[in-house]
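[Structure tokenization] protein backbone as discrete codes

[Encoding] learned vocabulary of local backbone shapes

[Begin record] amino acids and matching fold tokens:

___
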Amino acid sequence: MVEERLQKILAKSGYGSRRSNEELIITGRVKVNGVIATLGMKADLNKDEISVDSQVITKPDQIVYIALNKPRGVLSDQAAGDPRRNIRDLIDLPGHLFTVGRLDMDSEGLILLTNDGDLTNKLTHPRYGHEKEYMVLVASRPDDDQLDIWRRGVVLEDGFKTAPAKVSVSKFQGKGAWLNVTMQEGHKRQIREICKAIGLGVVKLIRVRISVINLGNLKSGEWRYLNDEEVKNLKNSASEKFSSPRKGSKYNKSTKTIRTPRSVNTPTNSKSEGRKGSSTSAPFGEKRSTLRPNSKSKPRQRS
């Protein structure tokens, strides 16, 4: 591997844009072989030890790709000084891992972890529009109007406009229902905030797919390495840039959205523990029903 400018190496390793990495170098936060780096310096990541804030950057031949089934009650981030359990407590591997697809503490399901910073940027940047699929158990059976509002897009309490989403009823369970939801964005607690806005209480929220990677039959708390074919497919998917703005996204402001301030309390669930598991790519859960809401019904304004 030939020598490259430090800011380019840092950008490939997931430390932001080259301009922001120049600031890291100027402020003395970057070292090469233990020596504080200077702007314009070059290095070879295969030969040199490069660190940012004393965190050594992983060499290319040590790249890993991991799928994890995050349990409920576990944080997606590793915060210094926070005693609560986080996903790195479940994965006994050295070095820094980037998180692809964070979930809030009460949600569970698929998260990807890798030290491939370039792939992380491509999978997390909103302009690539990678799909994420969820199974959501709601406390009551949604009507056609609620589903239509969700599909069209909702203005949340913080003013964020959600893009249109694919939402369908998978099956009914007691007084509630399992919904299959596919989105191309990941605003903080988005599904929970949408459900709150349209009057649905979330009982359980499970992510079952990120891009081309499925949760499969990984048990709660289990993790596995992605196989070579999965890594190849994931990289191919990440390399496909969007060709046109998504409806309802910040790149297309013409989509109409509906404000729905009504709220419902969200039930709680229990914690779950985990361990390292085996490889699989089977889809989640049971077969979906053919139930479909009446697409001709008109959404009504809720208050």
User: Anything to note?
Assistant: The chain has two domains: 4-57, 65-259. Residues 65-259 form a domain with the Pseudouridine synthase fold (CATH 3.30.2350.10). Helices lie at 6-12, 18-26, 117-124, 144-152, 190-198, 228-239.
